[in-house]
Automatic annotation (TrEMBL), chain A:
This is Carbohydrate ABC transporter permease. One of its GO terms (biological process) is transmembrane transport. Belongs to the binding-protein-dependent transport system permease family. CDD domains: TM_PBP2. It is found in: Cell membrane. Gene3D superfamilies: MetI-like. One of its GO terms (cellular component) is plasma membrane. Its main location: membrane. Keywords: Cell membrane, Membrane, Transmembrane, Transmembrane helix, Transport.
UniProtKB/TrEMBL annotation, chain B:
This is Extracellular solute-binding protein. The keyword Signal applies. The keyword Nucleotide-binding does not apply. Keywords: Cell membrane, Lipoprotein, Membrane, Palmitate, Signal. SUPFAM superfamilies: Periplasmic binding protein-like II. Residues 1-24 form the signal peptide. It comes from Streptomyces spongiae. It holds the Pfam family SBP_bac_1.
Amino acid sequence: MSSLAAQNSAREAAPAAGAAPGTTQGPPPRRRVAFVPTLVLLLGAVYCLLPVAWVVMAATKSGKELFSTLTLLPGTGFADNLADLTAYRDGIYWQWMGNSALYAGLGALLSTAVSAVSGYALAVYRFRGRETVFNILLAGVLMPPVILAIPQYLLLAKADLTDSYASVLLPLVLSPYGVYLGRIYATAAVPADVVEAGRMDGAGEWRIFARIGLPMMVPGLVTIFLFQFVAIWNNFLLPYIMLSDDEKFPMTLGLFTLLAQGNSQPALYTLVITGSLLAIVPLIALFLVIQRFWSLDLLSGAVKS
Amino acid sequence: MQFTMRRRLVATSIAVALGATTLAACSSDSDGKDAADSGPVSLTYWAWAPGMDKVAAIWNKGPGKEAGIQVTVKKQASGDELVTKIITAAKAKKAPDLVQAEYQAIPTLVSNDVLADITDEVKGTKDKFAPGIWQQVTLGTDSAYALPQDSGPLMFYYREDLFKKYELTVPTTWDEFAETARKLKKEDSSKALTTFSANDSGQFAGLAQQAGAKWWTTEGQKWKVSIDDAATKKVADFWGGLVEEGAIDNQPMYTPAWNKALNTGKQIAWVSAVWAPGVLTTGAPDTAGKWAMAPLPQWSKGENATGSWGGSSTGITNDSQHKEAAAKFATWLNTDEEALAAMVKEGGIYPAATAAQTGGALSKAPDFFSNQPDFYTKAAEIAKTTAPSAWGPNVNVAYTTFKDAFGKAAKAKSKAQFESALTAMQDDTVTDMKKQGFEVAE
Amino acid sequence: MSGTTMNTGKAAHGSGRAPRARSRTRATGGSVRRAPYAFLFPAVVLFLLFFVLPIGYAVYLSLRKVEVKGLGLGSGARSEVWTGLSNYTAALSDSELVNGALRVLGYGAIVVPVMLGSALLFALMLDTERVRLTSFTRLAIFLPYAIPGVIAALLWGFLYLPSVSPFYFLLDKAGLPQPDLLDGGPLFIALSNIAIWGGTGFNMIVIYTSLRSIPVEVYEAAKLDGCSPLQIALRIKIPMVAPSLVLTFFFSIIATLQVFAEPTTLRPLTNSVSTTWSPLMKVYQDAFGNNDIYSAAAQAVIIAVATLVLSFGFLRVANARSKQEEAR
């Protein structure tokens, strides 16, 4: 075991169970850098960041500079844009931001929880109808969401739930994608004998899941959380149909109202761009927090518990 | 919160016991906010124009308080989707009391049983609007389905400095317009007078309207669709010809490239509506003070007509439990001097009410047109010449086909395709109406 | 204990069938038998409420249509009636829907392989030893997924339209030819680029998270046997993340067939993208532009069935293959 651990430490991002602290932030071993992979990743990063750089640069431009200066050069208006955005209708932007945080945070949390229990059940148990249930849940993604928004609205209207926070939250809690991911991660992370051992110790099924299965699934679950968070954060059509009260709007929908004020109104480009840039910041923060969890070796959970 | 709730409950029971008049009398004695909260009628209003909440606040503090009618504005995003959203909400009986609706959406909304017939409620307001505008809210019938809110008469905008530089004269007819475009191309082939944008159905509809087109009319219990009538054909041929010979550009408007073209003087004119200054302010900021506005070119000398692009109305829904109260607010909003001034100031709209089109908030030219101090006086003159337009229950279908068919034609730079695009618009519109079961006269 | 647990556990999932061999052994009473149903209960309830009911409603709508009397003005002039399959026959005979499907297939042929190929490549690179800047590149590649769609049209307008694009500026300065990105063949590349840019990071994370779950001792053995990093990647890592690859493929096929955002983003910028460029755009146009939810629902059902055939067909083939491998 000890020799294994020593070799493992070479694997920068994944120390073995019980070895060095399980984060990427750990000091990289003093060895040759793998140039080709690093270069490939950097190229990928540049490709991905170029359009993002446009958003950053454009947010620094005043309305006057936006269409008149070179596209990827910075402007001088960021502070003004920020002030204008904050001043717009008494700071409703921050209300939208808060709403988005609520929708995405709570929605992703619930969604991850549902994906975790369902994925775990589908991975760990063998029961009648397992594949059928799984396939039917998956088939839920076949119907384009575009066409479901209106029926969902009409059904929620029957329950008198439209134009409420719940109307945006509830339809997004179940994510077939999340369930599928949950199943894959649970299959990979929760070994059969650990579950068996739990049973031998006399633990109930829920207890085995909560105490043994769940910790093992954490790296996968944070991924599901991240995806659901971003998906809900950027969701547009459902809130568009469900909400009429703009104080309940999420950020995307709020920004859209700034662009679409009728063709007689100039679109408030600079506000929308600045607002979009600010909207990325919480997602970056979330990503930075979440990536720490990917570095835990899945099995370390089992060892610890 | 609980306190207010209880208070409202008490107030309501008193109202029931004593009748609403007594309550109004009582509450005007107490402090303003609570009186507003306990008002017997509260209305919701879906609008997309900026600043409508501030206009509603004036009502809520003043006339609305007296009448016991409070209005909450819920700001929406404009666009085709909003019509669907309103129809869906109405299907679920959750539509707001009042909606801001573009003129061309009114027949669709009426046909879907969303907008209420408010003929009786708005009696006496007809004279406040130009006949061509009023006709759009009546759909040519004796009923009224909305009150006109703002309008967008078409005009001709051009770069005064560049016109001088290239020795161009301001065209008064479309023939002169074509000549101007050709002359500019000859002077400097990197420039274009303007572009034909297949993205903006509203502009094309306005141009057809000026030429005398009436796309939808009724004959008894039948609709008559004449999108491919002679007048519209003339317009399509004209623009198709200019695109084909390369005298003007063929790329869509409202793109970053278009903004840049206006800002750098690559395009030096724009057929647009009275609201153009706002768009130019953000889209072509470097050109402030360099533009001028003139009446739209005419089809033959001596004529005097224009079309409209954009504009909207205030409608009242069938879901509203307080149609009369809603009509009171809508009337105030669109005819009261203070309301109109506030709409101009807060929302930057061009009011539909004739009296508000000069003086007051519009006595001064927009900053962007400081070189043309009589901007709004001139605009009001032009607004009076707005030709009537005739909308039908599936304008959206015609508009969608416009975008696709004319987009293809503009891309191909083919005059012949402009004509066939028009035929496609007519055919798609008629097919859709028949599919829905409308009686269509051939 | 932990050591043995790891090894046997892993050996089992190597073939992706860990769950099988087990709980059947000692099905300890009712609680084990009931547990999966209890665990799935919330998902099933939510599924019934927010998927089955609305889908059912959409299918119902697809069999209905509006019928108008007279001018269709005034209340009661418009009623909803049964129309049988006419919405379906109309959709199937609409050449625009077929053309849209063909365009989407062309687009998918670029997007799916390139996006998933680079996602896998990046994930493997991130998981390689002695790679630097992983935190930064991982975030950078994921970031596009976080850009809100509200500004997409503006963003790509600024990068694609020749007169404002910095790339055309450079091409111009360098005296190179400047292709029209928004027409013909290049249009497909322009569209695919948006999708690849936005989706690679997402899929990379899925695969990467799976790679993280492979226990290190699996590689150690291979390394001791003298396998190069490339061989480890090809022979061990890729087979072990196969379930994730299947998942990303499955969802990418669906996303391709339901492509909507990318062409909608470019539509206002050019005359080359019609409102019915992809089948789902047509659905959206009918539902939200033309207020014909009935035809839109019928088309959506057709798209769903086509997606079902293609995506589940793929899943079947993939599963059959993995079973074969298990059998070996």
